[in-house]
């Protein structure tokens, strides 16, 4: 029996599995999976624990792949890299950079394991760029029998499309081969703009930049814009002192202090929202792509995020603003807006649909359900699809009709995991 407890990043998801293990080889992993299968026990895999949902918790066997984190093969000429599933995005970024390679797009957090990030549909922003899983060319998957199969366009194209965003429901991802691009620099510009004018131009702004996102504190009339574009200009990175001051002191410690004050005195939140917006200020830099994409996140929160058809973005944001103001909800975290191109992963929130992602957050220790349920009702009206790693209140019954390839995914799941060995209560809720 395992006495160890597993917890996710925000501490709201916890589990005491019977077995909690970190295998050091595929043989050890196969032994763990086989033992669980022999006694009819379910198996789940934990990445870095950055998912806010209950995808990981189990009373059975819980496996961490943190020891399976090697780069297996790298081809700078062909732009391909094959890695074990437990490698973190941060570690892989460093390896790619040394070889003159990069991901074409990334999110703003790099502490996640690669397998965990792709399994939940993690994305960055860029209206012409897909999510991280769209860069996968092949995937190696261990089934309940301990055998590893390779899923690619030649061997099993339907299996590959299912496994690219699988929620861990098909087996244990052991290795991935991804497409990369030559290393590049980004010209990053952050600064404020009027909210009303930004919403009027939102679609234009999304298409005018390689990577565009908007942050907005709900009780402020000012949006904070982040525009990142490829450039051949020489690098102009921030100094270490300025990086620390902006990313750690202002963005993290400043937000932490304002959030704590707002949690203690909710009536102050509108004023604190406007203060946070003023503190954000403007900045500009040129640096390697992964250094521009990634921002340290030290403040604890919980999050919900939905992908909706991008043409409804401004209307949805306005409805969220009206709902917050009408109910006087104590929201002291910014709303984040990003854009992602369509892809063909069967359960991807951006499957066959150009999308706008809208993310809402609440600070640790504050009630999130009234706010999130209000936002989810708005997202439902636009056929919203939840980010699989973020909180939502949907079920298989409410989700099936939103995914054109829902039954195709279910067919692959029945084929690769007929006994639902890789399930748990959360998967029973959201997949059936």
Task: Outline the structure in words.
The protein is of the alpha+beta class and 432 residues long. The chain folds into two domains: 71-182, Uridine Diphospho-n-acetylenolpyruvylglucosamine Reductase, domain 3, CATH 3.30.465.10; 185-386, FAD-linked oxidases, C-terminal domain (Vanillyl-alcohol Oxidase, Chain A, domain 3), CATH 3.40.462. It is built from 14 helices and 20 strands. It has helices at 26-38, 89-98, 114-119, 157-163, 195-200, 202-208, 240-264, 269-280, 289-293, 313-327, 369-380, 396-399, 406-416, 425-431, and strands at residues 6-7, 14-15, 19-21, 43-46, 61-64, 71-75, 80-84, 101-102, 136-142, 148-152, 172-179, 181-182, 185-194, 211-216, 222-231, 283-288, 301-309, 335-340, 355-363, 385-386. The chain has an eight-stranded antiparallel beta sheet, with helices on both faces. It has a five-stranded antiparallel beta sheet with strand order 6-7-11-9-10. A hairpin with a 4-residue loop joins strand 6 (71-75) and strand 7 (80-84). Helix 4 packs across helix 13 (406-416) and helix 10 (313-327) runs antiparallel to helix 11. The chain is globular. It starts with 5 loop residues before the first strand and ends with a helix. The mean pLDDT is 96.
């Amino acid at each position: 029996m395992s006495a160890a407890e597993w917890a996710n990043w925000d501490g709201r998801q916890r589990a005491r599995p019977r077995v909690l293990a970190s295998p050091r080889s595929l043989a050890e992993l196969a032994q763990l999976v086989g033992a669980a299968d022999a006694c009819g026990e379910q198996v789940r895999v934990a990445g870095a624990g950055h998912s806010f949902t209950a995808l990981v918790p189990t009373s059975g066997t819980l496996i961490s792949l943190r020891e399976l984190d090697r780069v297996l093969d790298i081809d700078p000429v062909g732009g391909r890299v094959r890695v074990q599933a437990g490698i973190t995005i941060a570690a892989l970024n460093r390896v790619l950079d040394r070889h003159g390679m990069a991901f074409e797009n990334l999110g703003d957090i790099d502490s996640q394991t690669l397998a965990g990030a792709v399994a939940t549909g993690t994305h960055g922003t860029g209206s012409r760029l897909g999510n991280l899983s769209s860069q996968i060319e092949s995937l190696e998957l261990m089934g309940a029998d301990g055998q590893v199969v390779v899923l690619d366009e030649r061997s099993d194209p339907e299996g590959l499309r299912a496994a690219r965003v699988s929620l861990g429901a098909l087996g244990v991802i052991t290795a991935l081969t991804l497409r990369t691009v030559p290393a590049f620099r980004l010209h990053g510009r952050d600064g404020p703009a009027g909210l009303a004018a930004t919403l009027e131009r939102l679609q234009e702004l999304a298409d005018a930049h390689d990577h565009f996102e908007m942050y907005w504190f709900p009780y402020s009339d000012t949006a904070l814009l982040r525009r990142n574009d490829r450039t051949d200009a020489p690098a102009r990175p921030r100094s270490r002192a300025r990086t620390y001051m902006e990313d750690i002191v202002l963005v993290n410690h400043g937000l932490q202090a304002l959030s704590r004050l707002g949690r203690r005195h909710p009536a102050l939140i509108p004023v604190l929202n406007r203060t946070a917006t003023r503190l954000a200020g403007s900045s500009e830099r040129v640096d390697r792509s992964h250094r521009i994409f990634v921002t340290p996140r030290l403040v604890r929160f919980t999050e919900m995020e939905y992908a909706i058809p991008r043409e409804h973005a401004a209307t949805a944001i306005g409805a969220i603003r009206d709902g917050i103001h009408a109910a006087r909800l104590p929201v002291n975290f910014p709303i984040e807006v990003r854009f992602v191109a369509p892809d063909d992963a069967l359960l991807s929130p951006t499957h066959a649909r150009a999308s706008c992602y809208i993310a809402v957050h609440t600070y640790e220790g504050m009630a999130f359900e009234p706010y999130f349920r209000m936002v989810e009702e708005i997202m439902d009206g636009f056929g919203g699809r939840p980010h699989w790693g973020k909180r939502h209140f949907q079920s298989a019954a409410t989700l099936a009709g939103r995914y054109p390839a829902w039954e195709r995914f279910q067919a692959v799941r029945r084929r690769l995991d007929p006994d639902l060995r890789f399930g748990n209560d959360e998967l029973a809720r959201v997949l059936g």
